[in-house]
Structures are given as structure tokens and as C-alpha cells.
Amino acid sequence: MASWSPDAPCSCDCFVAAPPASAIPAVIFAKNSDRPRDEVQEVVFVPAGTHAPGSRLQCTYIEVEQVAKTHAVILSRPSWLWGAEMGANEHGFCIGNEAVWTKEPVGEEEALLGMDLLRTEAWVLETAGRLWAAQRIQEGARNISNQLSIGTDISAEHPALRAHAQAQGWWDGRGPFDFAQVFSLTQQPVRMEAAKARFRAGRELLQQLQGGITAEAMMGILRDKQRGICMDSGGFRTTASMVSVLPRDPAQPCVHFLTATPDPSRSVFKPFIFGAGAAQAPQVLSPTFGAQDPVRTTPRFQTRVDRRHALYRGHQEALGLMEREQDLGQQLRQKQRDLEQEGLEAVRGLLAGAPAPQELGGLFQAFVERESQVYA
């Protein structure tokens, strides 16, 4: 299968809801990762670790200094890179990556990718080159869709942000400082119009669901093809999705639902919980190619490799069956829905105080195995 090309377009949608917008006392996060159609996304579990002083860490293109201690993380990532499109750590810190286009020039040298930075209450953090602005979301609902969206409500910012904008002639230094207005391109690429439409559609959906937003409701938003949130257009589609429930009660576990397969409208959201028994599910881990990987050799991306993991292969066959055989396809889709509902019910019970299974960490693996059996 093809690897990602540096010239490929990028688009994604992120959503977050906090009380009183959410139906339960929890922050609910959701993201669709929209990528090149044949790009495979894997789900990777990385346990917590300690690292010797002076250790180096190989990221996608460059090495950086390793920190002394790293927390356990669950990541959904394009299988050719080190970083991730979305993920969470064991302490309930959840994050998603979006591409934006601004007036700041893009550097030519290889560096950390936005997806590499993922591995490091709700915040929206937006960047323009090395500059940034952040908005804290303490209540209600918010979404972002491949465009700068922070206006004058800035909670934190790069210390040189306003001085740089003024020096470039983008802001007069006197009127209100609107980050999106100041740093957005005057002549925006065509793809930005689609991003604006998705942003408006996502905001409307969140408004309609105010006070009743649940994990299942977020899954429904991510599956919305009519409004383009679930993307399926030419060489581009939603390649993986994630929904996280982050309870405000620290005694309750955070739950992260991941698909590990493309097209959430025909995929199963499977629950992952950090805890005893948490380990890598081999069925959602892509093969590796070592020093011969097209991302490691220079010039990069000159050859094609097959990165499909076992669940992806089974899911591909299932999608083909859904399209060829209507009756069998409907039966298969019903099995997917039943399996997902079982996971949602288990999580609802857990958050309502039901006794927890002995090894919560094995929950994702169990659901991956059962989904694989559906496709066998």
C-alpha cells in the first residue's frame, strides 16, 4: 500500500464537550482522522518508562533529547510515522492533531511533525509557524476543522505573538487582537472552503445536542457523511476515529474508543482503558520494515510497502462484502453495531458504579479479537 506523500492534503475534525453540554459529568473528546485513502492507521500502546540521562529519541525525521520519564499512552497513528493523529495518556490527557494554513511560511528543513508533537479540562491550541495561541474550554462544546478558530478569546499565547503580527503589518497594535483574523491567509486555498463548511456543520450538530452529548452521540457526529464530517471523497477518506470519555471524578477510569479501521460509519468503536493487563493488541499493529522503510531511506517515499495490519485486512474484506452483497452486508453491519453497543453498555455500567472486570486493560484486546472473528 502507498505511503503518505508530503504533497498530500490534510483535513480532520475535532470535537469536545464539557458539562453542561455533555450528558454526564465528564469531558467527551472526539476526532476523525482524514487522510489519503490507502493510508493505514494502527493503534499503538506504549507503556510508561524511565530513560537514562542523555538518551536520544528517534522521531519521524529527526532525533530529540529523551525525557527522564514517559507516561503510558494509547495512540492512533498513520503506520509510517512515529507520532500520532490522536491519542491519550494514562492520566486522562487527550489530544488530536489538525493541519492549518497561515501567513507564516512553512520551513523547508525536516523537523518534528505536528503528529510527533501529539506525544507529549480542554484546550484549543493553534499555531502559525513557531507562534501559537491557546483557548481554554471550561464548559460547553467546541469544534475545530483545519482552520484557525481562536479569535479574541485567548487564554495563553507565545510571548512574541502580537509584536510579530505588528512588525509584519498584520495588526495595528491598537484594535482588538483576533488571532484567526490576523494570521489566516488572505487568499485561502480551495480546500479551506470545505473546512469552513465542516466547521459550521459540526458546530450546529453540537448546538443541537447541547446537554445530551454522550460518547455515542459523538460517534454519530463522526459518522456524518452528509455534512462531510465522515469524509469519503476521491483519494481521501476518514482513515481512523476516536472518542474519549474523561470523567471529572478521578476515581472513575477514562475510556478511549478507537476504530483502528477506516470509515467510522462502517467500523466498530472499541473501548480501551489503562489498567492491569493493558498491552499491545497485535491485530492492530502494522508490519515494520526497518532501515528499508521508505520513510527512512533518502530520498524519501520512493517505494511502496504494504502496511495493512490484520484487522485492517479483515475490515477491507468486510467493506467489500457490504458493497457487493446487500443482505450479507446488512447482517455484517448489524454484528458490528451489536459489538459496539456491548462495549458502550459495559462502559456505561462501569461509569455508573458497576463492578469492574479484574483486568480493565485487556478490554480493547478482547473487542479487537471479537471484531476479527466477525470478519473471519
UniProtKB/TrEMBL annotation:
One of its GO terms (biological process) is proteolysis. GO terms for molecular function: cysteine-type exopeptidase activity; dipeptidase activity. Gene3D superfamilies: Penicillin V Acylase, Chain A (3.60.60.10). InterPro entries: Peptidase_C69 (IPR005322). Belongs to the peptidase C69 family. Secernin subfamily. PANTHER family: SECERNIN, SECERNIN-2. This is Secernin-2. The lineage of its organism: Eukaryota, Metazoa, Chordata, Craniata, Vertebrata.
